[in-house]
Amino acid sequence: MKHKSKDSTRLGFIIGLIGPWVGFCIYGIFWAYRFNKTFSYFATDVFMGVPSFRSSILAICLLFNLIPFLFFIRTDRNLSARGVLAAVFLYAPIVIYFYFS
Which pLDDT score is estimated for 1? Predict the structure, then answer.
């Protein structure tokens, strides 16, 4: 089996760590546009200010990792997909913590 270029667990892990942050920004911008508020309002008052919303918002942000994960799977870059999955497993306890607190 030929080794694909740009197929490494480290690359997938880094993308998996950055993905939820990008997802948070995208979700926050869409939320702010929808409710005619600012992104700053979303981040401070909604995300940080309402603890019951925090785990839901984090879970939605983790869903953004599906995009690179599915891309890596479909292009047969399994090591990179493994890295993205490892990053999701790193974030999952944080979401669970906020869900139960």
Answer: 54
Q: Which token pair is 19?
A: 């993905």
Range of the domain at 68: 9-100
0.90 surpassed by pTM: no
Query: With 0-12 CB in 10 A as exposed, 13-18 as middle and 19+ as buried, what is 37?
Result: middle
Residue 16 neighbours by CB distance under 10 Å: 28
Tell me, what amino acid is at 78? N
Three-state SS for 52? Answer: helix
Whether 47 contacts 59, CB under 8 Å: no
Q: Domain for residue 69, yes or no?
A: yes
- Domain membership flag for residue 46: yes
Q: How far apart, in whole angstroms, are the C-alpha atoms of residue 93 and residue 3?
A: 33
Kindly report the length of the chain.
Answer: 101
